[in-house]
Amino acid sequence: MSRSNQLTLKDPWEIEVMREAGRIVAHVLARMERIVVPGVTTLDLDREAEKIIRTAGAVPTFKGYVIRPGVPPYPSSICSSVNEEIVHGIPSADRVLVEGDIVGVDVGATLKSYVGDAARTYLVGECAESTKRLVEETRRALDAGIAAMKPGGRLLDVARAIQNVGREGGYGIVRDYCGHGVGRAMHEPPQVPNYVPKRASDYDLELVPGLVLALEPMFCAGTHRTETLDDDWTIVTADRKLSAHWEHTVAVTEDGAQILTIP
After folding, report:
1. What CATH number does residue 239 fall under?
2. Can you give the pTM of this predicted structure?
3. What pLDDT does residue 136 have?
């Protein structure tokens, strides 16, 4: 493991371990695809995810995570964010999914001390065309960001690629939360914004082999502004309009970007 510009770069062995963790995450998300249906609760999703993670010999990265002093540790194995919830929704037996909902499922698995982190937004039954478009365009923004992760490129190339898709679609692009480096810790430098900030020079970073990032565009049907609910975890859109979230853990290599959170 080496350091460059205060960033922790991963060697080939570390990337392979993260790929193993990522496969577990991918397995969970594939299972969610089959069981996200009207009538299921978000607690049902959480229990199934934890079973898969632990059976694979990993541990749920999110469970017990401390975000800041004074806030209780995160209680669940996944984040399940429904409709206007952007991220960090806490699974509950009282949250029953209904036809037309969308639910973002964010999963972290730690294996041999390394983290795999990914998310996707699922349609619950039949949804409105505008809802389908929001979900699909957010996924497309993730693809665009990954395509921009070329060795020798810049972190701002990734931010701009994601931003372009969001702006073309007319969506609010969340600014208060962003992607991040990932490795032994779930959150490592650098932050990866989904838009080009005014202080762009703060993010003018070269993409070098060994850099591993969690890209996670979050688009909203209305405003990009956010609020935090009383549970101190769940982040919602300020106007309570829909939001979608997609994420992959991606490594920069000499040959380009490699997605680590796929089967």
Report:
1. 3.90.230.10
2. 0.96
3. 98
